[in-house]
Amino acid sequence: MSLSHMSRSIDIVLLSDKIIGDRIMPFLESEVRKLTDSPTNKMIDLWHEMCKGKFNRSIEIVVENRRRHPQFRSTPHEVNTAFPTSYKARAVLSIWVESFPGLRPMIISHEIGHWVLKLQGFRGMFRRPRDFFLEGLLNSLATHPPLYRLQRQVGHDPQNDIDARCDHYRQLFSQHGRADDLTSALGLADDLMNCSFKNRQQLEWTLSKNRVNTQRLVERILNIASNYDLYDAESNVAFRRTLVNEMKLGNWVSSDDLKPIKDLILEVGRKTSQ
Question: Which of 65, 106, 139, 263 qualifies as a cystine partner to 124, CB 3.0-4.6 A?
Fold first, then answer.
């Protein structure tokens, strides 16, 4: 799961006022292609290419309103995520977005890109017992460098969004206060690895003045990351394992990200053959 912490109004594609007020049904892939942009279409094409190579079939995408999902509707912060599911007797990659019925191309390509990387071998990890928030932070930290590179390859540059989050963190931590050091450090390390040099300097200075304990954890995380090539799938997974052990985050295991898609294809196949 990918959980975005900030909302930006740029690059939003809105439909007519009538549809904004009435839209309930998900956007089908054909609609998403028309309503977004060329980089989003290239990411969709790459998703289909990977699916054909792994499963010998295409799997369409649909975009849905996260407020209509039982698990996400009451979440107070911004939620954008994607996972395989069935829709009208078809296996699809369902993308749940905050901006619905607006479509933000950068978000759409980001969520599809997470799954492209999964099919390329960038396996996630999950905790036992499950902690979805912590899992999201750790997996995003490891995945975002190759994901941002992938987005740039198709024509989307997420740098403005990354730097905007750093500005947000700098304002948030500009005063002394209580915060969960571990979860803060994971989110901060994520953006510090990917933000511009100027933003990194400013945020690190703010942390050194107001959040010393958090800063120490961030430095530990970044030092661990520096020993791994996060753009290589196996090295990326090894980084996650080391981080879990070094930070004493409990019992974690690697996930088989292809299995839910394979199971879904079989389930849909059984239902349609009955």
Answer: 139
